[in-house]
Every structure is written in structure tokens, then in C-alpha cells.
Amino acid sequence: MNDVSDDKTKYDVIIIGAGPAGYTAGIYSARARHDTLILSGIIPGGQLVNTTDVENYPGFDDGILGPDLMIIMRKQTERMGAKIIDVEVTKVDFHSKPFKVSTASTEYQANAVIIGTGANPRKLGLEGEQTFAGKGVSYCATCDGPFFRNLELVVAGGGDSAMEEATFLTKFASKIHLVHRRKELRASKVMQERAFDNPKIEFHFESVIEEIGGNEKVQKVVLKNTQSNEKSTLEVGGVFVAIGHEPNTKLFAGQVELDDQGYIVLKNRTETSVPGVFAAGDVHDHRYRQAVTAAGYGCMAAIDVDKYFSEN
Question: Strand, helix or coil at 24?
């Protein structure tokens, strides 16, 4: 891994983040003969670094481990000529050109920037949640649902995402226990009705997950009723946490327009509110949140940058 920069600080394009969006943008940008720098962050690879089997990324008929997919993408990006430095960006200045992107030790400059810093799922904050990450604890039903066929599962959450996850998982699971800390759901009426009408979904209102347990994989959860403090144990094969995502955009507050949830607002295809600054992947996409769509947005952003250069 590259963790030391050289003396060069000026590039055509700087890409912030190195998940599927950042690497794909790097491939397209470097292939278009733009001098391209990727500042990956301390842990490159995005959410796929913490993902085990990936079965739904095209091109791998037997599936592939998330970290292995990221290693392949990284090698391909470097082969195309992009420079990758594993360092965290601490500050940006998009108010004038060239744009400035700073790390703890170096200020870089570029004529265009692609933001691909992604988003992180909100966590329950339980010890067992980390212990069983990738071993029965998941944050993406679309990604992992097929691995849980004929098992009872828990879905934590009360919004639209939780209803969507629970409903989707009934395609595979024998039963879904939906756990929500309040006595009423926050989801839209349509999503609530869809979940209530599904015979495979059982609701546990005014309840929280207090413990996730098992041997090598998730085997049980302990629920606590928030009113009576009574505890109960469910024997389940997995826990899906659907309490929202947090886009990694604090760095860009006051630099580009963000929506009320903190996601980057796109103004023209992948371009942000600042001409010359683009975004790709989960940092703006709170609907699909898939590796393949993030890669697609990375491709689009790099092509948009190329067009931006040709018109300016």
C-alpha cells in the first residue's frame, strides 16, 4: 500500500475515497489521460472491506470476498496510472480554483474533484454487534438476504428502510421478528401496511435488542421491553440492522450543498453545487447503496469530469 506521498501536489483530478465509486472513477479518469490522485483514507475499500461473501457483483460466478474485490479494483486502478495514497483528508477548499484538498501533512491541488467517501450504517452499539459482523449481523438485506434461507431473523428499526428490509427478507427467511423501540412505526403508511399484511413478520414494539449471542455465528438475541424491563430470548440465525446510514460528509459542510440528512445534493448529473466538484456512490445515493451502483456512479462522475474539462 502507498502511504507516503512524493513531492508532487498538483493533479488534474483528485478523488477522495477508495471504495467501488472511487476506484472506478480512478480507472476511468486515468484511462482518459487525466493526471489522477486518489486519497483513499486510512482504511481503503469502503464498506466492502467489512463484507464477507459478495455474490451480486457481476463477473464472479462463484462470488468473491469483499476485501478481495477491493484489492482487485485497486490493482486495476493503479495499472491504469492513477496514484493512490492511503491517507485521510482533513480539509477541503472548494471556494476557488484550483481546488485544495489537504491531509495532515500536505496540501494538494486539482482542477476537478470527485467525492466518493461513502456512508456508514448506523450501529446499535452492542458488543455482540461487532463480534458477529459478517457472521450473522448484517446491514444490507439486498446484499446478504440469500445467505439466510429458512432461518428466523431479527430486523431492528421502524422506518421505511426497516420495512423494506423485513419485507425483502421474507423471500428467504422462515420468519422475521421486527424490533422497534417505540410503540408506533416511523415508516410511511404504505410501507407499514405492506409489512403488517405479511404473515411472516412479527412485530415487537417498545423493545430493544440488549444482547446478540452465539458461538461462531448468531444464534440468539435477547430483547428487553422498554416499559416493563422484561427480557425475552429469540433463537434466530441473523440480525439485520436497519436504523439508517450516515454519509461521510462532515468534511464538506459549507463547501457543497448537503440535504437535511447530510447527503451531497447533485445539481447536474454527478456534479455538486460547485462546478468542477463531483460526487459518486453512497455519499449521495441513499436509495440503492450497492457496490455495483457505486461503481456505476464512479464511472459517470469520471466521464462528467472529462466533459467538464472539454467545456471549460
Answer: helix
140 is catalytic: yes
> How far are the Cα atoms of 77, 150, 190, 229 from residue 210, in angstroms, in the given order?
43, 24, 29, 11
C-alpha distances (whole Å) from 120 to each of 135, 179, 230, 283 are 18, 21, 32, 9
Can you read off the three cell numbers belonging to residue 208?
430493544
Q: What would the DSSP string read from start to end of 93-115?
A: E-SSSSEEEE-SS-EEEEEEEEE
Q: Which of 45-59, 62-76, 190-204 is predicted least confidently?
A: 45-59
- H helix or E strand, kind and range, residue 212: strand 207-214
Q: Residue 75: what residue type?
A: K
Band (171; pLDDT cuts 50, 70, 90): very high
Q: Is the dihedral of CA 19, 102, 43, 86 positive or negative?
A: positive
Asked if 184 and 103 touch (Cβ cutoff 8 Å), the reply is no
Q: Has this prediction a pTM greater than 0.85?
A: no
- Give 37's strand partners: 14, 83
| Look-up of cell digits 446499535 | 124
Q: Which one is catalytic: 12, 144, 285, 306?
A: 144
Is residue 299 among the annotated active site residues?
Answer: no
Radius of gyration, alpha carbons of the chain: 21
Looking at residue 265, the DSSP 8-state letter turns out to be P
Query: What is the tens place of the pLDDT at every residue in 230-241?
Result: 999 999 999 999
Catalytic residue among 143, 282, 285, 304: 143
Distance CA 219, CA 136 (A): 8
Find the catalytic residue in 35, 53, 86, 140.
140
